[in-house]
Amino acid sequence: MSHVTAIRTVPIKDKAAITSAVKELGGEIIEKKEYKWYGRHVGDYALPKGMKKEDLGKCEFAAKFPGINYEVGFSKVEGEEGLFPLFDFWGSDSSGSGHDGKYLQKKIGDDAGILMQKYSTHAAINAALSAGYMVMGQTTDAKGNVHLELGVM
Amino acid sequence: MKTITVTIDKQGKPTIEANGFLNGSCKAATKPLEDALSGKDEKIVTDKPEMFIAQSGGVADSMHL
């Protein structure tokens, strides 16, 4: 036994992994520079760390889920590596064409947790395989944590 | 066998645990995963006592901090 590394913030650096994560949730990656949201910051919540008002709605690419109008944007954040998921959780219009952020939030989780757990799993597997490690198993415990067991020769 | 366990919580935050490595070689083994999953200064590394045991079974003469 050797050491334990706990990572507190996961930036998106592996596009194949986020594409797989979005697909697992039934969505698709769309190459676009603006994601769908309410359209303006009304000031009811603090801006995400490292972002300015004018950054909202802009992205490097986006994720779209069937039946949901609002989208997830994957955006650069000042001073950080990689991309971070941004989405608007306002609105519960069920028509699929209006303000339906609550449905998007339900799909990807609070703070995009469901999506990011899937992303981290795919990114870890991709990194392990690139390093020549063997993926020996993947399990999910009762608390919902994913465990990957990797063999190192 | 040397193994690495990656535990990913419900917010997507991973914890990477190296098992069965001796003499500090674990740091190099987990680096590809840490590089893929972490951003700037977002890692907390906790060494386990076993990391300082040399391959021969003795105590390593320099500690990897």
Key attributes of the depicted protein:
heterodimer; A: 153 residues; alpha+beta; 4-stranded antiparallel sheet; two-stranded antiparallel sheet; B: 65 residues; 18% helix; disordered C terminus
Would you write up a description of this structure?
The complex is a heterodimer of chains A (153) and B (65). In chain A, β6 and β7 (146-152) form a beta hairpin. Chain A is globular, with a radius of gyration of 17 Å. In chain A, α1 (15-24) crosses α3. Chain A is of the alpha+beta class and 153 residues long. In chain A, strands 2-3-4-5 form a 4-stranded antiparallel β-sheet, with helices on one face. Chain A has a two-stranded antiparallel sheet with strand order 6-7. The model of chain A has no long low-confidence stretch (mean pLDDT 93). Chain A is 24% helix and 23% strand. Chain B has 65 residues and is an alpha+beta fold. Chain B contains 1 helix and 3 strands. Chain B has one helix spanning 26-37; strands at residues 2-8, 14-19, 43-47. In chain B, strands 1-2 form a two-stranded antiparallel sheet. In chain B, a hairpin with a 5-residue loop joins β1 (2-8) and β2. β1 of chain A pairs antiparallel with β2 of chain B.
Task: Report the biggest beta sheet of chain A as strand number plus sense, adding barrel if it closes.
Answer: 4 strands, antiparallel
Output the radius of gyration of chain A.
17 Å
**What do the pLDDT scores of chain A average to?**
93
Terminal Cα span of chain B: 24 Å
Averaged pLDDT of chain B, please?
A: 75
- For the largest beta sheet of chain B, what order do the strands appear in spatially? 1-2
The strands making up the biggest β-sheet of chain A line up spatially as: 2-3-4-5
How many beta-strand segments of chain A?
7
Q: Enumerate how many helices of chain A there are, as a single number.
A: 3
- Fraction in helix of chain A: 10-25%
Report the radius of gyration of chain B as a whole number of Å.
13 Å
| Biggest sheet record of chain B | 2 strands, antiparallel
